Recover the amino acids of this structure.
């Protein structure tokens, strides 16, 4: 009986089966904007230049965009 219920939930594709057995949780991915402003472009270019000039992974990790 329980197997039939779980099989039905799996085949239904409602996601309830994944929640019951601890399956994967949905992940939302933020898309970058379609249009960048001039200051955003300058910040991205500065980050890229900083990463290219970094000699160690520690230096590269300090190149994040600060907004």
């Amino acid at each position: 009986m329980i197997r039939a219920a779980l099989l039905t939930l799996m085949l239904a594709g409602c996601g309830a089966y994944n929640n019951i057995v601890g399956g994967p949780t949905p992940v939302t991915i933020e898309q970058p904007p379609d249009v960048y402003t001039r200051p955003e472009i300058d910040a991205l270019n500065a980050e890229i230049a900083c990463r290219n000039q970094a000699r160690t992974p520690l230096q590269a990790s300090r190149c994040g965009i600060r907004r």
